[in-house]
What we know:
Vcp-like ATPase, Chain A, domain 2; elongated
Amino acid sequence: MGFFDFLKGSSSETEKPSNYQTSGQQITLIVDSSYPGDQGGGKVRIDPETMLFLNISPGDLVVIEGQRKTVAKVWRLLVEDWNQHKARIDNFIRTNAGVGLGEKVTIRRMTNEIEVKRIVLAPPEGLPKNVNLAGNPNFSRILIDFPVTKNDLIPISLGMPFVQSPLVGFKIIELVPEDAVLITKESQIDFLEQSYSDPEEISDTSDEGIDCVDQQELDNDQKSQNEGNFNEDPIKIIKIRYAKGEISKEEYEEMEQVLKK
Length: 261
């Protein structure tokens, strides 16, 4: 099976998510753990070849579908993970999509990013009562530009003094409008006092970072992306430029033809 045959999955006529406007193109990828620095960031990492296939760039929203549907922001995999048919997502996104490591997800580009007007979050059981949710503006600030769907678990760092800040999953009880997918600075964020009890716990985080590069290497790659310093062959460079949205698909194809001569 060729690379793009793998991406297309078993059928090219798969039903689109009912609540969202997406492009017809889709991919099927194998789930892997997130990079350490991506934990709780709402990101899905894929390679430039996949970005080309979906005609998306870093920062775009996609629908991820396993047993359930959720949304995430796209970013680029590190070079050593390219061409392995994988999507790196953290344990929160895996839980929201209803998938585990090594399982397959279908990813589609979202074409209509509806902003959240109001979102209501419920804390998990066992949250300390002295955590002031509604009165802390930090909680609202860290959620700006975060991708969401109803019934998702959103990771929030409690930021407790003198303690390493844990990521806690808050459940989305209400979204206005219901098909909204992106929190903005204009969104009204409300916290319920009543906690939720979910029989499906968030999957273990101990796998995050296994078989991954360390944070320093990830930071170096991020710096390279920002500065454009790539010690790679020209084809890879233009793939990255296309994936970052610096050149159009037509420009990419024209450059590719020239470089292959």
